[in-house]
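Hi V.,

You were right to ask for the full record rather than a summary. Here it is.
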Amino acid sequence: MKLKFFTLLLLSVVCFVSCRKITSDPDIKQYDQQQIEAYIAANSLTAMVPDKTNGDTTGTYYQILNPGDATKPVDYPTYVSYVYTIRSFDGKYILSDTVANHYYGVLGHTVPNGLMLAIRNNLKYLGGEMRVLVPSHLAFGKNGYGTGSTTLTSGRIAGNQCLDITVHLIGDQAAYDQLVIKNYMAANNLTGYSEITSGASTGLWYKITTPGTGTAINDNSSITLNYKLYLMNNTNPDNNAYTSTTAPISDISSGGTVEGFVEGLRLLGKGGGGGAISIIVPSALAYGAGGAGSIPVNSCLRWDISNVTVTNP
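Predicted structure:
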């Protein structure tokens, strides 16, 4: 009898402890909700509202900064171009450079899932901008993202980290590029540039820094030159200045050089030999939606070209 009583008592204790654990320990969705509410309060994000699409909640909170163009809705099959910033709630992972942070592809392939849902459910239209708080279970989950130590300020998102993301869906890439170029010139006090406003080179800006005095350039010219390439944050993706030999320039594009670079050479025109030019080109005249190596997709680029020598057949 005593043994039976002891067994029942032990089972009761186990059940009581188990029940206490279930009611006191939050699941991941509840944990994320607590983290987001605390983050909103700590940062006075009073304009944030929960996503309740279809009457349910995804766990994300968002604020529309620009509603975009209601005539240009997006859905999962839509190709989208956007720039973004990311900050983990613990502040250890920060990506804030919208020159480097570009995306182009199908919305349905966007990661993390929380951002994909927020763009479709809340931002909705091209040209719009939104700040969204993504819960960890719709971000990178318990495993996090990236490599290396979680003590680094970049390179890795720790497990179970919610994310603070700002995303700008680009509605008109050409217009956006011109805004980027003009802001870049203003920020770097670049003056004396002229814009090409018609023809195949529309949107290209140039400044002849040294007028050429040598042989004129034509499409059959063989050219040797020095150049240096910059992104709009002044980083040099080539990590150096280069000397290049091309012959003839009409075939340059087949060797991997983009149209904007070729047009820059043509702008030297008569007396191109010995000349120097600085060109700033929109993404359509650079590497476009494909990008190239360390050059992000849809990047505007600046080339400084100098020491041009020309040989004509």
